[in-house]
Amino acid sequence: MRRRLLTSKHWLFLAFALMLGAGLFPQSLASGLWHYPRHMLLLALSPAQHPLHSLADQIRTPLTPKVELGPISELENNYMELLSFNAKLQQELREANDFVMQLAQLRNLRKASEILLPARVTLSTQGLAIRSLTLVVGTKKKVQQGMVVAAGYNLVGRVASVGSSTSTVRLINSPGTYLAARLVPPVNDQSPRQTVAHLEVSDNGKFFFARGDINEQVKIGDLAFLADDRWPLAAQGLIIGQVTAIDQDEMTPLLRTRIKIEPLRSLMHLGQVLVIEPQFSENALGGVLP
Amino acid sequence: MSWVFFIIMTYVLVAFETGLGSLFVVGDSVLPNLLFILGIFISIYAPQSTTLWAMLILGVITDLVFPIQGVGPVSDFVLVGPNAAGFMLGGWVALQLRGIFRRSLPGIVMTVMIAFFFSQLLVVAILTMRGLPWPIAEPVAGWSAADELVRRFWCLLYTMLLSVPLIYLLGGSIKLFHFDPHRSGPAGYIMR
To answer: Are residues B33 and B62 in contact, defined by beta-carbon separation less than 8 angstroms?
Structure first.
């Protein structure tokens, strides 16, 4: 008697294995493969389904489809927030552009009204009464007494005496120097703030300090710009230093603060500076040496 | 077994399951599986191979009628295989259990519970395997095996509950199935 090669058990096992494999088919393949059988099955079921559907709807009102809008509404909120943030940034950009234009105009004006004369520093002197630099420029280069000396945007001092080829600069950290400065934040923050303070030089000359009101909003990191009428116009707005500490005043701790301001560059270790020579104004060198 | 009556019963139960789905549904998507109850009923009385072929057919129909639910209304897709294999496993489990449980209503309900448990375990395993990191991996969008196991546990309880009246009704029409009353042992049971 001839025996069959594949029995019913074998076919069932194969079918089981096939179904296991078919469960891993990619979505596109499975959709294409089973779309037509599903359609035919639903077509065959439709005569019985419709009356049952209406019966079910009569007994129990159909549930409202639950639409998951969570992520969509979240995305919409994010989008709106980003739009408003973008508008705010655009506004800030416009303001910044305006400010840059004003600065450029100011710079052009300064360029026309001033000459920046580079000068090498040959000697740094730290005496009891005065701290000074000696420069290798003098009257031959049209340097005059009272001219402002800067290092980049940092205020260094004023020319105190001039020789034919050299000059002496009195540094701003010389003992007994008093400066009026405007303390402002280094970047535009949301609440524009500025404080005017009078700076005194510390005994060692390494920093300045000012006494501020306890209610004044000075923060560490604020920059101190010169705002002193006793100084020439060319020096106004140059940087004196940066606020590095704010402590309670020893005498009146509940009312006043002691603000410590350190120069951004060490004034005693400069290799080269700029002497600002005014061009137009006759009173450009006005003001008394502080 | 009369395959014609089996087809008729399958048609009726599928129509009930899909047509009255909005009536049967509990919560979001907890539904009883009437076709599985029919398969277990057959497995109690029919021979082994007949049971497994019937389970295969019922599983394929379940796969065709109930597509895999992806994320969003348009991402559902038909995937024949998971339920077909699961039903076959459930049928095999039922065949093993029919020597343990008596052919009474509680015994059949217990068989439904245990077989459905293994069946759904395999379905979840197959669909989870689609997300494994291998070359042909294509995970089901938004698939969470843990969530599915919880949902299918409630489906199991619901199916058990509905198996009581359905087995009772199917028992009333047992003569129409024409189960072979003279076969015993692993091939089938003698009708009492």
So the answer is: yes
Contact A15 B79 (CB under 8 A): no
Span B38-52, pLDDT tens digits: 999 998 888 888 899
Residue from B40, B17, B158 nearest B92 by CA: B40
Considering chain A, what is the average pLDDT of its residues? 83
Residues A241 and A222 in one domain: yes
Domain region containing B112: 3-17+26-69+84-132+141-187
The pTM (predicted TM-score) of the whole model is 0.52
Residue A36: what pLDDT?
Answer: 87
Identify all chain A residues contacting B63, using CB atoms and an 8 Å cutoff.
Answer: 34
Whether the pLDDT of residue B37 is over 70: the answer is yes
Which residues in chain A have their CB less than 8 angstroms from residue B21's CB?
56
CB atoms within 10 A of CB A134: 17
The total domain count for chain B is: 1
Q: Summarize pLDDT for A143-178 with one digit per residue, the tens.
A: 988 899 999 889 999 998 999 889 999 999 888 788
- Short-list B25, B7, B45, CA closest to A53: B25
Output the six-digit token pair for B98: 């029919």
pLDDT of residue A57 exceeding 50, the answer is yes
Q: What is the CATH number of the domain that holds B8?
A: 1.10.1760
Residue A286: C-alpha distances to residues A182, A229, B163 (Å): 21, 9, 106
How far away is chain B from the Cα of A13, in angstroms, using its nearest Cα?
10
Please give the average per-residue pLDDT across A19-42, as a whole number: 84
For chain A, list the strands marked E by DSSP: 114-126, 131-135, 148-151, 154-162, 167-171, 178-184, 195-201, 208-213, 223-226, 239-248, 256-262, 272-278
Q: Do A34 and B80 touch, CB atoms closer than 8 A? A: yes
Q: Which amino acid is at A183?
A: L
To the nearest whole angstrom, how far is the Cα of A71 from the nearest Cα of chain B? Answer: 12
Chain B contacts to A (CB-CB under 8 A): 11-12, 14-16, 18-23, 25, 28, 49, 52-53, 56, 59-61, 63-65, 67, 77-82, 84-85, 88-89, 126-127, 129-130, 136, 138
Q: Are A153 and A238 in contact (CB under 8 A)?
A: yes
Q: Are residues A192 and A254 in the same domain?
A: yes
Complex ipTM above 0.90? Answer: no
